[in-house]
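Side project, low priority. Logging it here so it doesn't get lost.
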Amino acid sequence: MPARSNAFLGRWVFAAPPLIDFDTYRSGHLAHHRHAGTREDPDLAFVRAYPVPSTSMRRKIIRDISGRTGLRDGLYLLMMTLRHRRPAPLVAHVVMFGALWLAQIPWAYAAWWVGFLFVVPLCLRLRVMGEHGAVPDLLHRDARRHARTTKAGWLARTLIAPHHVNYHCEHHFFPTVPGYNLPRLHRLLTARGFYADHPDAVAASYAQVFRACVGGRSNRPDFGDVGRGRASLANMA
């Protein structure tokens, strides 16, 4: 697909409904790839705290499923949309509601917001934990040390890791490989012994990742103030 068509779909179809500015997010994601494994990684704030104590993890999950995280992030993104006069999210929601109204199921628009507020935050947290949470060394340039590939069943692929984004090590080493080829790439690399000396680079499931991300603070590296307050929502501003 031509780059212009890709950008159009990314901006108006995929990024607009969740109120994300496509160009700003792309800039932040490219910076993440450029600086992954260093203190300049803009997404370090997502994972710098893992592993966390079980009480802290419980509080995070409660915030996610109660809607507190979704409401906070949704209001922030809406504020940025209005402040910077970004048309794509507003147009997307007008079209979405109009189409559902014409289909005589306007209630489905409310269902979309229920998912956005109460389901998406936890799914995103689990995805991020799978990608970089409690990895061997967040400040190592080898992606097998600062990233992780997580094997996913059908439920995890549906809710947490669509389009094979769970193959995150492969994505960092070969970012131009399209998502549908990442499973094949993983099999090829595994057969050639790419992960033989890095067993922590591949997790058997998101349950295994979750267990790895719960632990005492003594197991957590000290980053000082590096990465604090620089989560990706700030990159979307």
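Brief comment: The chain has 14 helices and two strands.
Revisit when time allows.
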